[in-house]
Q: What sequence folds into this?
């Protein structure tokens, strides 16, 4: 890969974005990570050529100014649930992409990488998938006219700081019984290291320009398979109750009104489509390869931090 002068990452403090930032450090002279709160992400400051820049993603002028002299822009912003009237699927998945596209055009940025999702498509009943689909269509029809774009469509992305296995490990730790909605929904999880390695390889790969690429791991699992695997790694026994469609929908309607929104109707609608693919990029790392290496260590780290806190 040719060295670049400046890369700007949207969502660079998140799980996928921070992994990309670390790996790009040896290829890019300057990495700019835009964030609402630079002080909350001091761990990224150990990367010598990385700057955490305070930014308002609703301010198009601010976005345009930060993309000045950039060779590469990467957008990894995405939310699974809406928690307020500002950070909505519409605003963060679609309107933000339009703002980024305008800024890319104004600054003459040559390359854009964008993280979407398997099953992203306009008119899906899931707002998450619908807005992801709107963004994909806009990038392919408009942004690709003046920039070399590539869209990556992953299934679940897993790794040390993921929000899937770590969240369910915490839930299972404190819940002797777990009623599981949509237990037979299918996933093809991809390791974050495999995904980000591939993304970096595509930067100068002309065959990936103006392409949407599915990104998955080597194995397909049902939702309940992944929960049982999590229990096995943690060496715990829990009662898992698979819920049918009626009770899965009922659980979503109840849980979406609770603090934290563990499961919503939009999540339920997304799970009606299997998150799998037999085309595109397929990573080599399975969940079994990696989950024991970080799930237990993360749990031990939390225990040590809590123990240290009690001593104070």
A:
């Amino acid at each position: 890969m040719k060295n670049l002068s400046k890369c700007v990452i949207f969502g660079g403090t998140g799980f996928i974005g921070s992994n990309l930032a670390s790996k790009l450090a040896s290829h890019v002279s300057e990495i700019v990570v835009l964030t609402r709160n630079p002080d909350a992400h001091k761990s990224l400051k150990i990367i010598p050529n990385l700057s955490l820049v305070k930014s308002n993603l609703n301010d198009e002028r601010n976005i345009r100014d930060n993309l000045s002299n950039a060779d590469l822009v990467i957008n990894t912003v995405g939310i699974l649930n809406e928690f307020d009237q500002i950070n909505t699927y519409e605003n963060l998945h679609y309107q933000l992409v339009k703002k980024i596209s305008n800024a890319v055009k104004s600054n003459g940025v040559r390359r854009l990488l964008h993280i979407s999702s398997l099953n992203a498509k306009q008119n899906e009943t899931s707002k998450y998938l619908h807005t992801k689909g709107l963004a994909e269509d806009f990038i392919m029809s408009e942004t690709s006219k003046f920039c070399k774009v590539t869209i990556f469509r992953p299934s679940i992305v897993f790794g040390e700081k993921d929000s899937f296995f770590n969240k369910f490990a915490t839930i299972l730790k404190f819940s002797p019984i777990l009623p599981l909605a949509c237990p037979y929904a299918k996933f093809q999880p991809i390791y974050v290291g495999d995904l980000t390695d591939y993304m970096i390889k595509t930067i100068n790969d002309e065959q990936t320009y103006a392409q949407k690429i599915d990104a998955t791991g080597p194995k397909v699992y049902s939702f309940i398979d992944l929960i049982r695997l999590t229990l096995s790694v943690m060496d715990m026994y829990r009662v898992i109750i698979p819920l049918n469609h009626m009770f899965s929908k009922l659980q979503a309607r109840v849980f979406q009104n609770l603090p934290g929104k563990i499961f919503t109707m939009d999540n339920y609608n997304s799970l009606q489509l299997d998150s799998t693919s037999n085309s595109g990029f397929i990573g080599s790392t399975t969940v079994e390869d990696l989950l024991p290496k970080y799930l237990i260590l993360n749990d031990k780290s939390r225990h040590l931090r809590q123990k240290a806190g009690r001593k104070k």
